[in-house]
Design a protein that fits this description.
This protein is of the alpha/beta class. The chain has two domains: about 130 residues, Response regulator (Rossmann fold); about 150 residues, Rossmann fold. Helix content is about 40%, strand content about 20%. It is built from 13 helices and twelve strands. A seven-stranded mixed sheet has the order 7-6-8-9-10-11-12. Strands 2-1-3-4-5 form a five-stranded parallel sheet, with helices on both faces. Strand 6, helix 6 and strand 7 form a beta-alpha-beta unit. It is elongated, with a radius of gyration of 29 Å.
Length: about 325
């Protein structure tokens, strides 16, 4: 029977079918190739980190990795660390801004202030701000309202608790030498809180103002070992970077001392009490992730630490002949022997 429709078993139709299939397959592979190439050429975000020390900045990098970011693959992170020389902050910030970053990270209030002064449009994430509201980085902790958000270490009661810890170890303390960086925007607030705590415990204050690394030896020279004196280290990136030098000075003058982060005790200071700085840096990566995914800094509440750690260095306690009460040892999160 004749028909206008050829059989599907026709060799010619089979050949055409194969050609169509192979052609479609080729187009599919080509499309996938173009998609992969487009994905590879998609612009990767650039984050500029103005940091105190590279050691702490690594915790931020670990936080990014846990969120799926790989530096050099799907994100670029440029680090510029002051390493205790806070006067370098403006130059380091300018270097970062020349790179046209999508987001900036500031490690401490002096460095955050440099970034805030430099831009009101690029999002800024704080890793450990001492007073973001008082320094006018944000309108409020709950609703920042500007281009800045992140993590704060603000906790006004910490000065009193640190002084109480010193009095527990050395009850005879009658004078407290307070180390302050006058260039830190939080210096006045920290000093007021320390003065209030000292008054409540009947302790006199002696304030040592150290604005830069070059001032350490001059400030401490000739101080000698005053009886019943302890050293209180205010929160500041300069002191964090110079903690080993401060520990040597405290030991040379046989002064029990307390710092604001565990790194001080690890490097020879008698005690440290405060929030974990690596944990704060790690947490800052979450803010970076949210902002890169579209969240606005103005709408992201500033977080405050809820956990504080006590670290005691028993090796340091032996030098001035101090005995750490057992009641304090059982409270410690870590004891360095």
């Amino acid at each position: 029977m004749r028909s206008g429709v050829k059989s599907m078993n026709s060799p010619r139709l089979a050949t055409i079918g194969r050609r169509m299939f192979l052609g479609g397959l080729g187009l599919g592979v080509l499309a996938a190739s173009f998609a992969a190439e487009a994905q590879q050429t998609t612009r990767r975000p650039l984050v500029g980190f103005l940091c105190n020390t590279m050691k702490l900045a690594r915790a931020f990098g670990e936080g990014l990795r846990e969120l799926g970011y790989v530096d050099g693959r799907n994100i670029f992170v440029e680090y510029r660390c002051a390493e205790g020389r806070m006067e370098r902050g403006p130059d380091l910030a300018a270097a970062l801004l020349r790179l046209k970053p999508d987001l900036l990270v500031g490690a401490s209030d002096p460095l955050v202030k440099v970034l805030v002064d430099a831009t009101h449009t690029i999002p800024i994430v704080m890793t450990s701000s001492g007073d973001p509201v008082g320094n006018q980085f944000v309108d409020s902790l709950a609703r920042p309202g500007r281009n800045v958000t992140g993590v704060s270490i603000i906790a006004p009661e910490l000065a009193g608790k640190r002084l109480e810890l010193l009095k527990t170890v050395a009850p005879e303390i009658a004078e407290l030498t307070v180390l302050v960086n006058p260039t830190n925007p939080n210096a006045s607030r920290q000093l007021r809180e320390t003065e209030a705590a000292a008054r409540s415990l009947g302790v006199r204050l002696k304030v040592l103002r150290v604005p830069s690394t070059t001032e350490f030896d001059k400030t401490f020279s000739g101080m000698g070992r005053a009886s019943a004196t302890a050293l209180f280290i205010s929160s500041d990136g300069l002191f964090l970077a110079e903690r080993r030098r401060i520990a040597d000075i405290a030991l040379a003058n046989r002064m029990p001392a307390i710092g604001f982060a565990r790194e001080f005790a690890e490097d020879g200071i008698l005690m440290a009490y405060g929030s974990s700085l690596p944990a704060l840096y790690h947490r800052a990566a979450v803010y970076v992730d949210k902002i890169l995914k579209g969240a606005k800094p103005a709408d992201l509440p500033v977080e405050q630490p809820t956990k504080f750690e006590l670290v005691i260095n028993l090796k340091t306690a032996k030098a001035p002949g101090l005995t750490i009460p057992q009641s304090l040892l059982v409270r410690a999160d870590e004891i360095i022997r």
